[in-house]
Design goal:
Chain A: One of its GO terms (molecular function) is cysteine desulfurase activity. Chain A: InterPro entries: Aminotrans_V_dom (IPR000192), Cysteine_dSase (IPR016454), PyrdxlP-dep_Trfase (IPR015424), PyrdxlP-dep_Trfase_major (IPR015421), PyrdxlP-dep_Trfase_small (IPR015422). Chain A: It holds the Pfam family Aminotran_5. The complex is a heterodimer. By secondary structure, chain A is an alpha/beta fold. Chain A has two domains: 130 residues, Alpha-Beta Complex (Aspartate Aminotransferase, domain 1), CATH 3.90.1150; 228 residues, Aspartate Aminotransferase, domain 2 (3-Layer(aba) Sandwich), CATH 3.40.640.10. Helix content of chain A is 39%, strand content 13%. In chain A, the strands form three sheets. Chain A has a seven-stranded mixed beta sheet with strand order 2-8-7-6-5-3-4, sandwiched between helices. Chain A has a three-stranded antiparallel beta sheet with strand order 9-10-12. In chain A, α1 packs antiparallel against α8, α2 packs parallel to α8 and α5 runs parallel beside α6. Chain A is globular. The two termini of chain A are 31 Å apart. By secondary structure, chain B is an alpha/beta fold. Chain B folds into three domains: 191 residues, Rossmann fold (3-Layer(aba) Sandwich), CATH 3.40.50.620; 57 residues, Adenine nucleotide alpha hydrolases-like domains (SH3 type barrels); 85 residues, Elongation Factor Tu (Ef-tu), domain 3. In chain B, strands 12-15-14-13-16-17 form a six-stranded antiparallel β-barrel. In chain B, strands 3-2-1-4-7 form a five-stranded parallel beta sheet, with helices on both faces. In chain B, β16 and β17 form a beta hairpin. In chain B, α1 packs parallel to α3 and α4 runs antiparallel to α5. The relative contact order of chain B is 0.12. Classes of the chains: A alpha/beta, B alpha/beta. Chains A and B meet through α10 of A and α3, β3 and α5 of B.
Chain lengths: 370, 377
């Protein structure tokens, strides 16, 4: 049985060009901090990658700081300014929500779009300087957030804006200035690069306190010898993400076809966030009465890989806080799956999903009630 | 139609037969999965996340999953089967842990493992297995499912030292049709040998001893945590009415208990004293000599009956087991109305505790059972 991978938002398969760039980087000897020629050669590879990631985010290379993951970049952004209290949206990734456990949360509407009037009220009621964190595209629904307006609102109240753009990179054009964000998080493995490397993009003049100390790397923002191979892969993946952005139209058409056939075969299903603008690769399908984890298992046994909520290291699936924030009751919020397409997805994959989804729904409809 | 049936009694080739195995991470369920996989079945392993391990051990920040879930994953990977972890914390808390606390507070002695089999594994997990298109749900319990003329029957395991039939009395006929117990014909050493032959790292893992969500064995502490303020001290009273001392809460006691009463060496007391009954309303622990424990009549509630049809009041000669560690005793069994029954013992039994199970046997076959509601002399 060939397996179909429709879980790009969890991690995208490594692109062949990226792999080649990483293999090349593996042959480089030396530490980028070293004074000698070996060190300079390795440093050149890191700086080339920095320029490529900068181009993806529409910034200068000096604004790019490499980290060990998107999660680390989010932590650095939100914990690096202890003088500022943090406000997040209710639908942020756990790496934002758990980085600042006490932070107030901006609600979202039924379609999963942040309520900017509520943001303004929360900022108006705040005492000291604030930092707002709002993602560009939601990882579970793909719903695009109104970043530019949020930035205007935040800046009018003297707040900074951090944007987790991990799920938007390669799917939407990115430009720090156009988004109006002051800090931006990226991750390599969501765009066909390797896991284990991310970046925090900083507007000029921002100097977060380092979380990891013990060396002068990344201008003292992030100590530790650079993950040169991973960073080289990130650079190549960032270049491809920019060049291949037109591919998102193809993926949107595939995603729309997937949703159309799923809804035709299973009328009880609902597309979450369908009323909002979404990135083209992501679909969130809710099937009332059928636990998302059961759906994921049944589809996996049929050779189709999708996900439900977010899984902890044990594999246990938590009910979705995103769908709960969108007003789904606890029962329905546990009944959704996420299908996420990417560079290697094709029509055959979509057809496999549609067939497996229809078969699963038919079997579950027949199964005796508990 | 073919008359061929595979080793699980299903008329399909093994590779076309999907079997969900409930994998706890222990040696028994691991071997169950490995054996079925070797026979060529389409095996799917599922492990239930039943409670937050970090909270149970009172180690904040510890992973919600214990070592057992990781062990189950390793085994599944080793034998090459898909494996999933299902979050049953909510169901387990409501259907097993709450019942455990409430039963203790009624002055009874619960068996949460039976509730877990009855309300979690054989109800919700079994439904999930059906949802996944499985033909059967297999577990590593030491009990046998025998195909009888009138359907599947539940029988004791071959190895009397391992037999778990007492804990499975609540299995319904419908559940039994779907369940399989491949280890029922094996001894524990045979199971361990199979684990070694399959190269399973859990081969030497010790058997779990305690109730899983009470890792350090203090049931009363768990009850006190679940129902704050409910564990209150009171009097220890002799059946003749004398107050002999104080106790720390009725949840610390079970009927038939002799040790740990803290009233040893009472002057004028020639006979050893046992807990005869618990009166949670008055917060009293009533003690008396062994003869006061003698019971000839046991009333049962929530009866699950797998035996022959009985007319109301019709007596059936059976053996009943009133504690997991006690040998069965001969009795006459009569079904009542509303899921009740009565067992009339030929010889008096001692230490019959409400809340424990009364399981009915004829020879090796389990005819059913229920919860002990009350007793009479």
């Amino acid at each position: 049985m060939t397996r179909v991978y429709l879980d790009h938002n969890a991690s995208a398969p490594l692109k062949p060009v990226v792999k080649a760039a990483m293999i090349q980087a593996m042959d480089l000897a030396g530490n980028p901090s070293s004074v000698h020629g070996f060190g300079r050669t390795v440093r050149r590879a890191v700086e080339e990658a920095r320029a490529q990631v900068a181009a993806l985010a529409g910034v200068r290379p000096a604004q790019v700081f490499f980290t060990g993951s998107g999660t680390e970049a989010n932590n650095l952004a939100l914990r690096g300014f202890p003088g500022r209290a943090v406000l997040t949206s209710a639908i942020e990734h756990d790496s934002v929500l758990e980085a600042v456990p006490g932070a107030a949360r901006v609600p979202v509407d039924r379609d999963g779009v942040a309520d900017l009037a509520a943001l303004d009220r929360l900022l108006a009621d705040a005492d000291g300087p604030m930092l707002v964190s709002l993602m560009l595209a939601n990882n579970e629904t793909g719903v695009i957030q109104p970043l530019a307006e949020a930035a205007r609102t935040a800046h009018a109240r003297g707040a900074l804006l951090h944007c987790d753009a991990v799920q938007a990179a390669g799917r939407l054009p990115l430009d720090l200035a156009a988004l109006g964000a002051d800090l931006l998080t990226l991750s390599a493995h969501k765009i066909g690069g390797p896991a284990g490397v991310g970046a925090l993009i900083l507007a000029d003049g921002l100097e977060p306190e380092a979380l990891i100390r013990g060396g002068g790397q990344e201008k003292r923002r992030r100590a530790g010898t650079e993950n040169v191979v991973g960073i080289a892969g990130f650079g190549a993946a960032a270049r491809l993400a920019r060049e291949e952005l037109p591919d998102s139209a193809r993926l949107t058409a595939l995603r729309d076809a997937l949703e159309a056939s799923a809804l035709a075969a299973v009328p009880a299903a609902r597309v979450m966030g369908a009323g909002a603008a979404r990135v083209g690769n992501t679909s969130n399908l809710l099937l009332p009465g059928v636990a998302g984890e059961t759906q994921v298992m049944a589809l996996d046994l049929a050779g189709v890989a999708v996900s439900a909520g977010s899984a902890c290291s044990s594999g246990k699936v938590k009910p979705s806080h995103v769908l709960a924030a969108m007003g789904e009751d606890a029962g329905d919020a546990a009944c959704a799956i996420r299908i996420s397409l990417g560079w290697d997805s094709d029509e055959a994959a979509v057809e496999r999903f549609a067939a497996a989804y229809a078969a699963m729904a038919a079997r579950l409809a027949r199964a005796p009630a508990a | 139609m073919t008359s061929y049936a595979n080793s699980l009694g299903i008329a399909k080739r093994p590779q076309d037969t999907r079997v969900v195995v409930a994998m706890s991470g222990g040696v028994d369920s691991s071997v169950t999965a490995a054996v079925l996989r070797e026979e060529g079945y389409d095996v799917v392993g599922i492990t239930l996340q039943l409670y937050d391990h970090g909270i149970a051990l009172q180690k904040p920040g510890a992973c919600c999953a214990g070592q057992d879930i990781y062990d189950a994953r390793q085994v599944a990977d080793r034998i090459g089967i898909p494996h999933y972890v299902l979050d049953y914390e909510g169901k387990f808390s409501q259907d097993v842990i709450d019942d455990f606390a409430d039963t203790y507070l009624r002055g009874e002695t619960p068996i949460p493992c039976v509730r877990c089999n009855q309300r979690v594994k054989f109800r919700d997990l079994l439904n999930t297995a059906r949802d996944l298109g499985a033909d059967a749900l297999a577990t590593g319990h030491y009990v046998r499912r025998v195909q009888g003329a009138a359907g599947a029957e539940l029988h004791r395991a071959i190895d009397p030292g391992r037999d778990q039939s007492y804990f499975l009395f609540a299995t319904t006929r419908e559940q039994l049709e779907f369940l399989r117990f491949p280890l029922g014909g094996l001894t524990k050493p045979e199971t361990r040998a199979l684990a070694e032959r399959h190269g399973l790292e859990v081969a030497a893992k010790p058997d779990s001893q305690d109730i899983c969500f009470v890792p350090n064995g203090s049931y009363a502490d768990v009850v006190a945590k679940l129902r704050p303020g409910s564990v209150e001290p009171g009097d220890i009273v002799h059946v003749d009415g004398r107050v002999l001392g104080r106790h720390r809460g009725v949840v610390h006691y079970t009927v038939g208990q002799r040790k740990g009463l803290g009233i040893g060496g009472i002057r004028g007391e020639e006979e050893p004293l046992f807990v005869v009954r618990l009166e949670p309303g008055q917060r009293r622990v009533v003690v008396g000599p062994r003869r006061d424990l003698a019971r000839r009549v046991v009333t049962i509630r929530e009866v699950n009956w797998l035996g022959p049809a009985l007319a109301p009041g019709e007596g059936l000669e059976v053996e009943v087991k009133l504690r997991s560690a006690q040998p069965p005793a001969a009795a006459v069994w009569r079904l009542g109305s509303d899921g009740t029954a009565q067992a009339e013992l030929h010889e008096p039994q001692y230490g019959v505790a409400p809340g424990q199970a009364c399981v009915v046997y004829q020879g090796d076959r389990v005819l059913g059972g229920g919860w002990i509601a009350g007793t009479g002399a």
